[in-house]
Every structure is written in structure tokens, then in C-alpha cells.
Amino acid sequence: MQAGPAVPPGGRVLGAAAVACRSLASLLLALICVLIVGQVVARNLFNAGLPWADELARFCGVAIVFLCVPLLALRGQHVAMDVASLVLRGRLRRPVALVIELTVLAFACLGLWSLHAFLSRAWKFATPTLGIPNWVFYAPALIGLALLALVAVARIRAIVAGRLPDGNGSPVP
């Protein structure tokens, strides 16, 4: 009898949310490609600039980074997250993995707090070219950091329970 697919730390809902963020990030990457081609065509064929395209591409680039972070963290695919725990053997491995995840959680919480502090003053303003409200412009960062915090909590719970696999798929001792 074969086992079903492994359930990620945090369950299927958190995993599905992280995959949805990655899918949205993929669409934004395609949009960046279209924007770049559009700018080149407009500039070279029509001698016209598209100043709004730079702002939209910047939004897409920032969104891609923050929307992909939760899935990478959920899978333990960030280099900085697993290199120390993979090198260690024995009893030190689990505490180091726990410290790493606690650091990720602290980073996510600090990022969320910083965005809250920033947006509490700047939410009503808009971007210069497109007029996108700041809260919309920074929404992918908020979503990504909130999901990263949830992923970190789920991974911490899994480490404490001894269920979180390492890079080779075996439980952390």
C-alpha cells in the first residue's frame, strides 16, 4: 500500500495558500515579460515611452518575491533556513532547526509590524504614475509575510513534535 502525498506542516490549507501565491507570482512574472516587450516595441516602433510600465513592473517584482517566500519556507527550500541543520548531526540538529525557524518567525513579525507602522501613515497615498493606493501596492508583502509567519509557526510545531523532515525527507532527530 502506497502512502498518499505528504501533508506539509500547517496542513493542506496553508499549503494550498502558498501554492496559490506562487501561481499568482507566475502570472505576475508573465506580466513583467509583456511589459518589457511592450516598452521596447513602444520605444523602438512608435518612439513613445510607457512610464507607467516601469511602476507596474516594479510592483510585480516586489509581489513575486513576497508571494513566493511562503511556499519556499513551507518546503524548507531557503538556503539560509536549512544549511546549519543539515550540517549538524545528533542532538544539536533539532535545537538549531528550532532557532532557525524562530528567527524566520521573528523576521516575519518584524516585517509585518514595520509594514503596519508604515501603512498606518501612508495607506491613503498613491503611487506617482499609476495612482495605485499604497495599501494595494504593499498588499503582496503583507500577504507574504503573514503566510511566512504561519508557515514558521507550523514548522516550529513540527520540529517540536519531531515530524519536520530535513532536506532528505527524514525526520529531524
Give the beta-strand count.
Answer: 0
Order of helices and strands: HHHHHH
Radius of gyration of CA atoms, rounded to a whole number: 20 Å
Ends: how far apart?
26 Å
Beta-strand percentage?
Answer: under 5%
Fraction of helical residues: over 70%
Structural class: mainly alpha
The residue-averaged pLDDT reads 85
Query: What's the domain count?
Result: 1
Poorly predicted residue ranges:
167-173
Tally of separate helices: 6
Descriptive notes:
The protein is an all-alpha fold and 173 residues long. The protein has helices spanning 11-46, 51-75, 79-87, 93-122, 134-137, 139-161. α1 runs antiparallel to α6, α2 (51-75) runs parallel beside α6 (139-161) and α3 (79-87) packs antiparallel against α4. The two termini are 26 Å apart.
Secondary-structure blueprint of this entry?
Blueprint: H1 11-46, H2 51-75, H3 79-87, H4 93-122, H5 134-137, H6 139-161
Helix pairs in contact: 1-2, 1-6, 2-6, 3-4, 4-6
